[in-house]
Design a protein that fits this description.
Number of helices: 12
CATH architecture of the largest domain: 3-Layer(aba) Sandwich
CATH class of the largest domain: Alpha Beta
Strand content: 5-15%
CATH superfamily of the largest domain: Glycogen Phosphorylase B
CATH topology of the largest domain: Rossmann fold
Shape: globular
Number of strands: 12
Helix content: 25-40%
């Protein structure tokens, strides 16, 4: 299926915003457009993080070559007259680009007023054909989130289906999502070997104890206990991964474990992905780092807060992952800070998370690659 429409567009704009997890979830859709229109020039329109921000921009995630010909960033946090001027300049830039069409790959929590505003903006930019809006409107995940919270299609599958609604077929190849280069892989291997580690002499696990949302953070002491048991049982070597903001918690955990490496803030996003390829499992919270691990095929044991729709942020990897989430009466709150002491996370025990990690590690064959086993999702 070529996906080409009759007019055979030469210049295509793809509109997708968000942080690390949002970009990774969109990768199958991005590659589907590349495959459908191999001779077209693809440009990504996305928001960028402010200086000093903890967020990760799309340009840090996508391959530097081979996918998009251009990345056009804009600052979403601007307000007032500066925002108006910025958007007018952006519209003028897009108009000069003479795009034949745009694909609207926006998150499902977009409001109707935001969509209408976006349509006006694209008309101002000279782009009259914006595909995907109708499908998005039919499948919006409006707030407030219902209680009990229903399960919905994962974000990555939704975006692929959105493209199918516009005649673009996609075949996911999860192992090629990030298209890591030999140089990026070599950097990670040398980083490990410089610390005296290889997958041949250690069972390496990645641990992601942080999150930009405090409501998504499982207790530090619980990560400490799970990994301590895995050290005793499997002699694992933990590597703490995440952003610079996770540096202190990583150091505290390593001090408690009396072994391990702190990679937080030391590598780029794509170098971190290469490092995660060397890990037997990823243990952590529902974060972009989890999605990064899943995108390179590393099985995930992930603790989910009950703040969002069930299933929306299910990572790649299917039955190789273990995802934990509990039902509580305040689920679907979508709060970054929980006023109830992270009740939904407190219901997820050290014992069950340890058991999931142990089962994955036991299933690893001699090459260190986990064998497929049934996915486990616990609803307390």
């Amino acid at each position: 299926m070529s996906g080409d429409r009759s007019d055979n567009p030469k210049r295509i704009l793809v509109f997708r915003i968000g942080q690390l997890g949002d970009t990774i979830a969109a990768l199958p859709a991005f590659w589907a457009l590349k495959a459908a229109f191999p001779s077209a020039s693809l440009s990504l329109l996305t928001n960028c993080a402010a200086g000093g921000s903890r967020t990760v921009s799309a340009i840090e995630v996508i391959p530097p070559t081979g996918l998009f010909d251009e990345v056009i960033n804009y600052r979403a946090e601007q307000r007032g007259i500066s925002a108006v001027v910025s958007r007018l300049l952006l519209a003028a830039r897009l108009r000069k680009g003479k795009f034949d069409r745009a694909y609207y790959l926006m998150p499902r929590n977009r409001t109707l007023s935001q969509i209408s505003r976006d349509q006006t903006f694209f008309r101002l930019a000279g782009i009259n054909e914006v595909l995907g809006i109708k499908y998005l409107k039919q499948n919006l995940l409006a707030f407030p989130i219902p209680v009990p919270t229903p399960e919905v299609m994962p974000e990555s599958d939704f975006l692929v289906d959105l493209l199918r609604s516009e005649g673009v077929e996609a075949r996911q190849n999860e192992q090629a999502l990030l298209d890591l280069s030999s140089e990026e892989r070599r950097y990670a291997a040398e980083w490990l070997s410089g610390k005296g580690l290889t997958t041949e002499n250690r069972t390496i696990i990645a641990v992601g104890p942080g999150s930009n949302w405090r409501s998504k953070v499982w207790a530090e002491a619980r990560f400490e206990l799970v990994v301590s048991r895995l050290i005793d049982e499997f002699n694992v070597w933990p590597i703490v991964v995440g952003g610079r903001q996770d540096r202190e918690v990583g150091s505290r955990l390593i001090d408690k474990w009396k072994r391990g490496l702190n990679a937080t803030g030391e590598l780029t996003v794509r170098q971190s992905a290469s490092l995660l390829e060397h890990c037997h499992i990823f243990l952590g919270n529902d974060t972009g780092t989890m999605h990064l691990a899943a995108a390179v095929g590393t099985p995930c044991v992930a603790v989910f807060a009950a703040v969002d729709w069930i299933g929306k942020w299910t990572p790649f990897g299917g039955h190789n992952n273990r995802l934990f989430r509990s039902h509580v009466d305040c689920e679907g709150c979508h709060l970054q800070d929980c006023p109830y002491g992270n009740k939904c996370l407190e219901l997820i025990s050290v014992d069950e998370v340890h058991a999931a990690c142990a089962k994955l590690l036991r299933s690893a064959d001699r090459t260190g690659n986990p064998k497929p086993v049934d996915q486990l999702r616990v609803h307390a």
